[in-house]
Specification:
Layout (H helix, E strand, L loop, with lengths): L1 H10 L7 E4 L2 E4 L5 E5 L3 H12 L5 H14 L20 E7 L4 E7 L5 H11 L4 E3 H10 L10 H13 L31 E6 L5 E7 L20 E4 L3 E7 L1 H5 L3 H10 L4 H15 L1 H5 L3 E7 L4 E5 L5 E6 L3 E5 L6
Parallel strand pairs: 5-6
Antiparallel strand pairs: 1-2, 3-7, 3-13, 4-5, 4-8, 7-8, 9-10, 10-11, 11-12, 13-14
Helix pairs in contact: 2-3, 3-4, 8-9
Bound molecules: N-hydroxy-L-asparagine (SD4).
């Protein structure tokens, strides 16, 4: 692992200081500022967030800027524009954002708005509420100058029509993946390029944490279904005194254990980000091992010193890290090997 991390860092031309071998995955030494996010495509989001963090900007601004990258990316089928629709052909989006003081905002099941993360931030900053859903969220967005857009791309519409032929709802582990056979952009041979929910966590140069999570949810879900991603405590939790966590995967199982909050609480008890993520995954696995075998869930955590860690149920989970010394995609350790 150490050698592999060295190679990856060398590929990026950056010195290796942040990662070292530990319990089958990376343990990081605290770095500030830093941004980490779920899946390989988090790398592009991190790059945008890094522009703000490296200029001594605020973590909250970095989170919003980073999350907007996959939201606008048509090729990403599970976030924002181009995301797969529900079974009625409607693209409904979920997002939330949270800062180090516990301020948070969330939109659930919002349609026609390309950047739900920005609407969630406005809910946090401009309303007395935490959550707006459906038509109310759309109304609020339009009143605040967001443009109404069609988010269903021809590709996603075709995928939905193909799905309707069998209409079998069975989320696939690490959907839409592509395995790399040669190192490319810092990716390892055998690593998997997933297009999935983005959870993104940042620590700025002032030591403040923030996080965000944005998704189109599970493809071909029932209309009105909301997963973990916009649920504060489930898909995202930030506590400036301790750290932050976010999740990806089958949201129903994350909600059942209020997963991201639990990760932060394990860190509060003295566990490293990696150990905290692992403990929550183990709890999910032990509760129903047969169910756990069939699904993917991954947690990602960052403490307020800039140490990070991740753990998933299944192989194939990865996360992206950007700091002064690292620009890498790391394969996450997993419960099922
Ligand atoms: C959800 N957690 O809506 C999201 C989807 C996801 O990998 O992360 N998929 O349940």
């Amino acid at each position: 692992m150490f050698r592999r991390s060295f190679l990856r860092n060398s590929v990026m031309g950056l010195p290796l200081i942040g990662s070292e071998l530990g319990k089958g995955t990376f343990l990081s030494k605290g770095q500030k500022p830093i941004v980490i996010s779920t899946w390989d495509f988090g790398k592009a989001a991190n790059a945008e967030a890094w522009k703000i963090l490296s200029a001594k900007g605020r973590a909250l601004d970095a989170i919003e800027a980073g999350a907007k990258v996959p939201e606008a990316d048509e090729s990403n089928k599970t976030v924002g524009y181009g995301g797969y629709p529900d079974r009625d052909g409607r693209v409904t989006l979920d997002a939330c954002i949270m800062d180090e003081k516990g301020n948070c905002g969330s939109v659930m099941c919002i349609e026609h708005i390309k950047h739900p993360i920005s609407v969630a931030r406005l809910v946090m900053e401009k309303t007395p509420h935490v959550i707006l859903v459906g038509d109310g969220a759309l109304q609020f967005a339009l009143e605040n100058g967001f443009k109404k857009e069609n988010l269903l791309t021809p590709d996603s519409e075709k995928a939905w029509k193909d799905w309707l032929k069998k209409a079998n709802y069975e989320p696939v582990i690490n959907i839409e993946n592509k395995t790399y056979n040669s190192p490319k952009d810092g990716q390892m041979p055998g690593s998997i390029d997933n297009h999935d929910t983005i959870g993104i966590l940042a620590l700025d140069s002032n030591g403040n944490l923030s996080g965000g999570c944005t998704t189109s949810g599970m493809a071909f879900k029932m209309h009105g279904r909301v997963g973990d991603s916009p649920v504060i405590g489930a898909g995202l939790f930030v506590d400036g005194e301790i750290g932050a966590a976010t999740s990806t995967g089958v949201g129903e199982e994350v909600i059942r254990c209020v997963g991201s909050h639990l990760v932060v609480e394990y860190m509060r008890q003295g566990n490293s980000p990696y150990d905290a993520c692992k403990k929550v995954v183990e709890r999910i696995a032990k509760r129903d091992i047969e169910k756990a075998k069939k699904i993917q869930i991954g947690f990602l955590a960052l403490d307020n010193k800039g140490n990070y860690g991740a753990y998933a149920l299944q192989k194939g989970f990865s996360f992206a890290v950007r700091s002064e010394h690292e620009e890498i995609v790391i394969p996450g350790d997993s419960y099922f090997k």
